[in-house]
Design goal:
This protein has 375 residues and is an all-alpha fold. The protein has a domain at 96-153 and 164-306 and 346-368: MetI-like fold. Helices cover 69% and strands 0% of the residues. It contains 14 helices and no strands. The radius of gyration is 28 Å and the shape is globular. The model is unreliable at 371-375 (pLDDT under 50).
Length: 375
Amino acid sequence: MAVAAEPPRVQRPPPPAPSGALLWLRRNFFDGWHGVLLTALGIWFLAVTLPGLWRWLVADSRVAPAGYDDCLKSGGACWAYLQAKWRLILFGTYPFDLQWRPALAVGLFCAAVGLSAPRAMWASRSRRWAMAAVWAATILAIGVLMWGGVAGLRPVPHRLWAGLPLTLGLAVIGCGVAFGLALLLALGRRSDMPVISWLCTGYIEFIRGVPLISLLFLATILFPLVVPADVDVDKLLRAQLAFVMFFAAYMAEAIRGGLQSIPPGQYAAAESLGLGYWRMHLDVVLPQALRVTLPSLVNIFIAAFKDTSLVTIISMLDLLGTANAAKADPAWWGLYIESYLFIAAIYFVACAAMSAYSQRLEARLAAGSGGGRRG
């Protein structure tokens, strides 16, 4: 009995994956009963708070030329106060007629950061040298602008530096120098030479065991007592050294964790190629370790940027200090929320930019090493 042949099977493409705005909303806001509950609570919170915020920030706010009495009567934000004090908050006691110099210095720094942010700018040796030259020229130009004394610029002592330039200087220089010191400390702690390992371990554990405030007090109060009377180290330099010492210890521990994650086979492979100690670490070990420790290092950078506000306890005016100085004006007595919102926005933008850039860099490094992005 003849068997009927089966009809040929037709290969059909798989159904398209669901997509669209409704699917995005369901996955992010209505995924399960807990998602619906959190979404409902969020909508309720926004409905309760947004009208009042809108009235205070916009509807009832006052801008220049409104005065103190008008601001008090309105009950809203007094942006006229911020318009009158923003230069004091940003640049502090720097001479008023010369504040274009720190403004230009901050602009040059931001331009250098933006120029060096794309990874392609560091892709080749020639580009790396070019970026190093750009940063050297930027730092030199910033120093000339802030100090003066050359090119016809009036000299300004750094005891008058305050506000945003001081915050950026303490954070950027402190983290940059601390990172180099942290590399040496992390390698020294893992060294086979006992003396070096003990010294690095003792330094790291001691510094991590004391708060930054105590180091700032030691740098400003105790240090002048233990050095010869004819030795005068500026207070700004002493505060900068305290930042370097403190955050170098924390960075060293983060880097040491990355070094411990490198398989022993990587060391053996580097040694089999005839690489010495420094070439092995610079070319093989440290690039892999820093890729692992990138989130921790960025977290330390963000903490260092925010912890610059602690210098107010040693009579230095960073952003927080200049905001406190601005609210002390009797002509605007009792108004301070606007200045704190202003500096909070600066801190948020800077920290959010560092976090977003680190996430992009981490994703690119993970893709380049064959790994996937981890949540």
